[in-house]
């Protein structure tokens, strides 16, 4: 499948993937020296670079207070761990600087 991105997303994806390399085993490695995560699919590495690598968790489960970097991960956690589809319990993590 072909993925269409707007110009801003395309520029961001290009910037985020500078220096990526494919290992001999066919896996893609994150270009950040402090990370080292590898992925089978190049798209998964792109998503990691844009949404996960070096990013503080933004979402928090109100049942157990576990934090996540991606909303999809929080939804999966809620369903699997808490047997809940009540997405009213999903929220952005509060900033430590707020009162």
UniProtKB/TrEMBL annotation:
PROSITE patterns: ZINC_FINGER_C2H2_1, ZINC_FINGER_C2H2_2. One of its GO terms (molecular function) is zinc ion binding. The keyword Zinc-finger applies. Pfam families: zf-C2H2. InterPro entries: Znf_C2H2_sf, Znf_C2H2_type. The keyword DNA repair does not apply. Keywords: Metal-binding, Zinc, Zinc-finger. Residues 28-57, 59-82 form the C2H2-type domain. It comes from Schizaphis graminum (Green bug aphid). SMART domains: ZnF_C2H2 (SM00355). This is Longitudinals lacking protein, isoforms A/B/D/L. Signal peptide: none annotated.
């Amino acid at each position: 499948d072909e993925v269409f991105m707007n110009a801003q997303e395309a520029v961001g994806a290009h910037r985020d993937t500078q220096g990526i390399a494919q290992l001999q085993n066919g896996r893609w490695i994150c270009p950040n020296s402090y990370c080292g995560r590898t992925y089978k699919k190049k798209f998964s590495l792109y998503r990691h670079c844009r949404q996960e690598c070096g990013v503080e968790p933004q979402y928090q489960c109100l049942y157990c207070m576990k934090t996540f970097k991606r909303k999809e991960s929080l939804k999966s956690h809620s369903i699997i761990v808490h047997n809940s589809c009540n997405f009213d319990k999903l929220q952005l993590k509060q900033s430590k600087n707020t009162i």
